[in-house]
Structure formats: structure tokens, C-alpha cells
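Researcher: I'm comparing several assemblies side by side, and this is the next one on my list. It has 494 residues spread over two chains. Same procedure as the others: predict the full complex and return the structure.
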Amino acid sequence: MFDSSLKNKFNFILVEPSHPGNIGAAARAIKNMGFTNLSLINPKDFPNEDAFYRAKGAKDILENAKIYEKLSNALKDATLIFGTSARTRTIPWPTKTSSELSIVLKKALESSNAKVCLVFGREISGLSNEELQMCDYHIKIPTDEDFSSINLSHAVQIISYVLKMEIDSIDLLPEMENESPTFQENEYLIDHFDQVMKKMDFYDQENPKQVKTRMRRLIKRLKPDKLETGILRGFLAKIEQVLNKKN
Amino acid sequence: MFDSSLKNKFNFILVEPSHPGNIGAAARAIKNMGFTNLSLINPKDFPNEDAFYRAKGAKDILENAKIYEKLSNALKDATLIFGTSARTRTIPWPTKTSSELSIVLKKALESSNAKVCLVFGREISGLSNEELQMCDYHIKIPTDEDFSSINLSHAVQIISYVLKMEIDSIDLLPEMENESPTFQENEYLIDHFDQVMKKMDFYDQENPKQVKTRMRRLIKRLKPDKLETGILRGFLAKIEQVLNKKN
């Protein structure tokens, strides 16, 4: 059951792209595969003539591109976030190769408020650790080990091609009823845990930063549904009440 | 059984590319996926600074790129030829989507003299009918119906990505003994049929050009092995003898 409107549920996000040519080439790449939504985080030089030249027949994608100052602002309604990453990180994150997307994609697209974000990093330095930790999954495009640095718009082309192939072959359940929590709701839950931990002086232990990151990763991997999120937040509120009474 | 030297059996061929930037970006794209061989047919502007700039760490691919005047010269040793094509042609040709490559690829790679060529057309006009008819298969990269014109280097990136994924997962038979006829040997066979048909006045019938093209397509699809090629050419020689006696 293929629904062309499925592609509207995707958003391609370029974080601080330096070269306007890459923005235009990325716009053309996603439109070639039937996608329409492009967001730019703090682009170095945009709007720019070279971007529109390289976009060819995809100038509409550039004209409708949304621009944000920070990645988190672009992710607010996201229900599933993939970040592209070439390097291996100190704290390992759930990682998919480009050909393994279908498994998580199908589930995400069955929710009524599905919004899948694909996040691409800077040409030279990629995504920061903080940005990568906003993602549910990291995607690693398989490359030759000795030469792994793919041009930004080419990475966008590979991912949008793989997504098109996946979406065109996905067999969705007819009822799209369950609602997924958004990035913002997840952030509230992560913050809530953090607040409670702070109140409990949990943070006085060694290496507080790692603890917070690991809690973040745990919740990202857990992917609680709306009801579960409610339960967890209720539980946290209860702890807070107890703590307040004690003081 | 993956053998990294398999990738040396591939050759990416760009026919009359106009933009040197695309040549550089294509070089980077194939190196990202572990390929090394690039050939250029009559490039408009090469060597060129912009090509080397866009190649980044793949300058060696450009330095070693082979340049030919005509596509047929670059194909001489080829045992399997794919040509990229967006349009549907008057005479339909065996066509594979990018995800269907594996079926024909495996068989080709099992021959001891395997040389697989991927042929990409001009930025604006693609490959000519004559060039497309030199190919064993046409590849159609699936795109959005309303916006199918993919940037040249992006098309190279998609195909090289798909090939890498296929090659990395192919399970080759250990003995690579059977030898495939090359493009040139096939051309001799096609020409031989043509000569015999002319001698028989087969060409005086309506629409001679279509007949020749259809014979070409038939032999391309047949993919005779060396022995079969020998039998067919023996048969043609025999017909010639008979014709000569008659005259």
C-alpha cells in the first residue's frame, strides 16, 4: 500500500552547510526521489545564486526551505530522527546502515503523526556530539575504509535513494492510529529525569556528564509511547513530591 | 567470499561530460565506494582545475582516468555493459533497475576475464541510441516521475553505492574459469551476421536499419559464450561459402 503523501512525512535537515552549491545539489537530489521538505540550520551563505543554479528544476524546494538557528528547533515535531555519522563515538549509539532503515521506518510511518527527520552534518566536521545525541539512530553510509568522506549532497542523494526504495516497497498497516511521542516530548522526559536526578544529588557522583548522556541514550532507545511517557513522567513527579516533603 | 580486487573489474565511463566539476565529483563518488577506474569519452574540458578541486581526496582517480575519442574504444575488453537511461526507447532493450543488478552481476563476475562497464551519458542529452545499443542492459535509476533528471555525479554515486552493496554481499563461486566473450568479439559476431545478411540481399526488405538493430539486441540478450560464438561464426562462414559458390 503505497501512499505518495508518505514522502511529505520526511524532512531533510542540513546543519550549517558551508557551500551553497551543496544546498542546491541536495535540493535537486531529494526532489529526484520525490521528497519536498528541506530545512537548513544556520547556513553560512543562503539564499545564494550558486544554490539556485545547482538546484536546476528543484528551485521550489529551496524557496520553501525552512531556516532555523538551532537543530533542536527543527526537530520539535519529529517522531523519528536519523543522524548521519562517519566516526565511531565514545558512547556508542544505536546505528543502522543505510540498507537497514526499513525495520525502524515501517513502525514509525504507521503512527498518525509520523515525522521522520534525516540530519546531515557540516561538510568538514559533521555533526557535534550534542547534535548526534538528539538522534534516535545514527546512519552510517558504507564506504571504502580508506576514503570515507562523502560530499554532502551525495550523502543526501544516497539516503534519499535508499528511502525511496524502502518507501515504495513498504507495506503499511491500513490503520494509522497510534501516536508517537515527538522529539520535544522526549526532551521533556529526559529533562525531567535530569531534574529529579539533580534534586536527589545523583549528580554528585563521578562523571556526571556521562550519566546524563547515558540516560538520554536509554530513553532514545526505549522509544516510549505516549502512555508510557505519561507513566514515567508521573513517576518522576511523584519522586519530586517525596523529595519536596523531605526538605 | 568477498575479494577487494573485484572492484578493479569495474570501469565507470562518462560520455562527453560538459562540466569538469561533475568529473571531479564522480571521481570522488566512485572512490568513496572503493572503485578506481574512470574513463572519459571526449570530455569537453579536461584536465581542469575545477575537476581536481571537486575530487578532493580522489585526485589519483582523475590522474589515472583514461580518455577515449569514442565509446566503442573504451568498451573493447568489456564483458558486461550497463548504460544509464532515463527515457524509454523506440526499440525496448533489456532493462534493470539499480536494485536488480545483482542477478546479472554475479554471473559476470564469475568469469575469469570479467570487466564490467557502467556508461553514463551527457548532462543534457544522455546517451545516443547508438551508444545505448552497445550496452547489454540499460539501467533506470528509479526517480520521481515528475523530476527525473539526476545530476551526473549523483547518478554515479547511486550506482557505485548500489554496486558496492551488491559486491560486498555477493557469494562468488570459487572457480572463476569460464571466459566471457568481450564487447569486441560480440561486435565481430554482429558484423558477421550483418555481412551475411547483406550478401543474401536480406537488407533490401523494408526498414533495414531496424533489422540490424534488432539483430544487435538479440545477440546482446543471447550473451553467447566463447564456444557458442565460435559455432555461430562457423555457421555464418559456411553460409558465405555457399553464397560465394552460387555467384
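Model: For your comparison table: The CA atoms of residues 52 and 59 of chain B lie 6 Å apart.
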